[in-house]
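Example 3.2
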Amino acid sequence: MKANKSVAAALILSALSISAAWSTDKSKTNIGDDVAQHVQRQAVEPAADQAAGQATRVGSQAAIFGSQVPAGTASRTVALPAGMKYINVASGDTVTFRSGGQEATWRFAESIRGTTVDLGVLLPGMPNAQGVRVYVERSHLFTGG
């Protein structure tokens, strides 16, 4: 008798969960479309989401080294000719980079040990920036020198 009641309860619960799942496609998402439309749209747009995610990762990696600032704040300007291999900067330095008619200004973060980064990571849209190593000196702020 107990076994019959357990089986009956399991069947009822199973039927309830199936009906809830069956109607899920009619539920609304937080942007107002139903679940079936949402899933179809996500299947079409994964490449755009991947590109946005990659840009976010690159942006967050660049933020470790400082940030882009308005052009009038630079202490010096550096031209980026084709074939340039590296540039040395001081921690906390603000530099305007010029290449191919474009200009961007970057303020380097204070670095405890000194660091290096590809300028193409900091300024991905800047011509001739890819492959140029930026050597950031160790900060005098943290070393007392």
